[in-house]
Amino acid sequence: MARFFKYKSVADLAAENARLGIDLRFSDDFSPLAAPATVGPQTVGNRWCIHPMEGCDGEPDGSPGELTFRRYQRFGGGGAKVVWGEACAVTDDGRANPRQLWLMDKNKPAYARLVAECRAAHRAENGDDADLLFGLQLTHSGRYSYRRPVIAALDPLLDPRTVADKSTGATVGSDYPLVTDDELKRFVDDYARTAKLAAEVGFDFVDVKQCHRYLLNELLGARSRPGLYGGDYENRTRLAREIFQAIRAAAPGLILATRLNGYDGIPFHKEPDGAGAPDAHTGAAVNGWGLSAADPLVPDLAEPIRWVGDMQRLGVRLVNIALGNPYAQPHFGRPFEYPPPDGYESPEHPLVGVDRHFRIAAAIQAAYPDLPIVGTGYSYLQEFLPHAGAANVRDGRVTFVGVGRGALAQPDWVRQLRAHGRLDRTRVCRTFSYCTALMRAKNHPFGQYPTGCPPFDKEAYGAVWKEVRGE
Ligand SMILES: Cc1cc2nc3c(=O)[nH]c(=O)nc-3n(C[C@H](O)[C@H](O)[C@H](O)COP(=O)(O)O)c2cc1C
Ligand code: SF4
Questions:
Q1: What is the DSSP string of 440-465?
Q2: Which residue range(s) make up the domain with 296?
Q3: Per-residue pLDDT tens over the stretch 375-396
């Protein structure tokens, strides 16, 4: 198995960058990361964002569980000034797993506790929380809903990989019914209702999730879908537009945000030698977002850039750029050193994947210099992620530096940086993918194992990891 990450210094990484012919940038001056930024009406105290990351540890009724509370205390205390709360379903049928969060009227007090504890931890460790933004990602999982796939548009490459309907056993293919326009319209109320609840329990923003090939992302690329919500650009963006408008009406003070795929890509599979390779395809993909018509392995940002501008006009004030589909090609979304169990060895140097993230976010930021953009792809850089973040913020390539797995391994990295000028080297995410492996582990009485960072958060996940591995 090829291993890539052998870098002992920024100079090593810069040399690799030159060798690979990519555009990673590094800076030792971290001051751009400490500068405040403005999101809608709010001042945000620094340029660090914790990405949305599901712990798959909610209660069956959708409330946060004890591990969920623990995670947001740790994230709140960590020092990042944007905490982007994880995927939270707007309906039971839209949950990706039986432990995914699901905010409802009857579990509001538990969510109010989650917000209060995150903010209290922030105050305790960092002083003021007036400049902390805490949001919640609202989702419908579409084809990845665990009870039954909700399919917006058929996809010849993804359909055979999609888990069958649990109750009927129906598999996704040409005779599987598409979700109807009327059913889609009803989701508008689900999003608006959940957004209003999110505002009432104290979240500062909601993210209308349009990434990772869940429902609203699939609709963005649903060129083959007939009716009001498929075909041309206007139709494919219609449901999200209706949702943004409904949320603005239902919760006027709430900041609108979105996590948007810049590029979907197509599925990859594992070759006999373990390496990843794109599924066989001919020319243009039938459906998909941000893909070049000539070659779906090449991004085309024309529509994503147009859509970000339209969303800004609809009142969206914060955009987090993601890539790919975690089930179909994990290397796009989460450049890794060790693959997840349902994955493959990285088919490209993972730094090329990091560079793809940075370039796509930079192109969108360049198109809208005044709109705060959050970038992704930093955890692969391990202890050098602050150097890349500082250079990207300095150069206006992003407004906020988003950290995913790195925050599971070392949630207090911003405080470490403040106190010592560097990360704690004993707790840096090494992109081992154990967290993704736990997400894929379902053989649990609740139908889903919780996830976190077994190597660097043994206290909470050491035993869980042993159980999943059958040790
Ligand atoms: C355990 C785990 C859970 C995740 N859950 C979510 C989620 O709820 N919503 C989302 O948009 N992305 C989710 N992601 C993706 C991350 O937000 C992030 O995009 C990805 O890990 C790449 O960033 P990184 O390289 O800093 O880890 C998850 C990732 C992991 C590892
Ligand atoms: S398990 Fe921990 S070290 Fe491994 S990828 Fe996840 S966060 Fe990083």
A1: T---STTSS---S-TTT-HHHHHHHH
A2: 10-468
A3: 999 999 999 999 999 999 999 9
